Amino acid sequence: MLENSKFINQVSIDCVIFGFEENELKVLIPKINFSGDFYALPSGFIYQEEDIENAAKRILEERTGLKEIYMEQFKVFGKANRKRQEFMDELISKNYIDNIEEVKKNPGYAWFTNRFISIGYYALVNIKDVKPRLSAIDQSFQWYNIDQAPELIMDHPEVLKEALKALREDIDTKFNVFHLLPEKFTMREVQDAYETIFEKEFVRTNFQKKILSMDVLERLEKKFTGAKNKAPYLYRLKSE
Amino acid sequence: MLENSKFINQVSIDCVIFGFEENELKVLIPKINFSGDFYALPSGFIYQEEDIENAAKRILEERTGLKEIYMEQFKVFGKANRKRQEFMDELISKNYIDNIEEVKKNPGYAWFTNRFISIGYYALVNIKDVKPRLSAIDQSFQWYNIDQAPELIMDHPEVLKEALKALREDIDTKFNVFHLLPEKFTMREVQDAYETIFEKEFVRTNFQKKILSMDVLERLEKKFTGAKNKAPYLYRLKSE
């Protein structure tokens, strides 16, 4: 199982991967490859000789196949009672019927059920770019609408909730929303993404004015729609 | 020295304590009680049975005497090369002239010079409320103007810089600025604090409109200044 010395003890990384499709905000949730219907956020540990940013990138690449991915560290989860004990015991009871006690004697069990501090990252992807890969512990994974996610293990529901909160808080200062869209997008698509994320409507003219005043978009050609006069402009994020 | 088992290994907390006085943004910086003029942000470790929030509160109370303190977790510092090795070796060379090698054999030395992940918190205080206390490793401490802080050890200059960035980013969403002021304050005092933090001036009428539109302040009596007609109103943060 896990070798203590390779990873930093008692510290993990939990990732929330958001995507946007058909006017729905979605989240990528793996199902763990054990009996018992366990769903968990993409997670991992930090190698002793690895920057935490690189660990997060590695964990995200493992699931999405994407090397360059927009991510933000958003919160550390550090309650004293933050342990995998209950989850691990349930998992073991449903998977190792004959040798439960043996499994619990494994040094990996003690390591894994210790108290963990978890660093939360959220990532924003254009769903069409993702080349999903199963990690060693995934049975499958799926994009879920944000309000239709399956029940998650441990405190992962709280991690997901806090990621969504951070996504909203960051939206006007970090211009993160554009990373949910294709490379070229219309102003309508930006507004759709905002309206979905905030679950409310914005007045079109004010919205457009606000977005353009951020001065981070570059206006491109018109989008070909067949009706030349009404074709909307395409935009993309200015390169830095 | 340090007992491994009591604290979480390889994780520390670094705090940046901001105050505001005479239109200057200030930061509280302790000088370490060893020869060599070492300045370090208030820091500490997390007990195995302690929430990280409580660890941060404990570390902040230790320095300020304040039990209730406004704080925000702002960033995790987690480079693989984030170690105290150089600092410790310099400290030891200036303080343990006769028995350097003995000191290095102490198990605490290995623990302390390991790679550490540090969770950054910034705190906002009203300087007049602080009842400064020296911790076990402080020789003294002092409030410095933000741009006149002494040279800090390790990556603490970066921690300070990121804390200031977070303070600015949070200002309009978390209403944190009010925690730098006395319980009752004038709109002019709020504007002074904003102008100091952002190092720029705001137009008075627009500024006032913006602050009042946040809808978090309660208007109180006028401040007695001797000139009744021109006395400004006092405000305070609404209780939640």
TrEMBL record, chains A, B:
Cross-referenced PANTHER family: ADP-RIBOSE PYROPHOSPHATASE (PTHR43736), SLR1690 PROTEIN (PTHR43736:SF4)
Keyword Chloroplast part of the UniProt annotation: no
Limits of the Nudix hydrolase domain: 8-166
Name of the protein in its database record: NUDIX hydrolase
Database matches in InterPro entries: NUDIX_hydrolase-like_dom_sf (IPR015797), NUDIX_hydrolase_dom (IPR000086), WH-like_DNA-bd_sf (IPR036388), WH_DNA-bd_sf (IPR036390), WHD_NrtR (IPR054105)
Gene Ontology MF terms in the entry: hydrolase activity
Keyword terms of this UniProt record: Hydrolase
SUPFAM superfamilies, per database record: Nudix, Winged helix' DNA-binding domain
Domain of life: Bacteria
PROSITE patterns, alphabetized: NUDIX
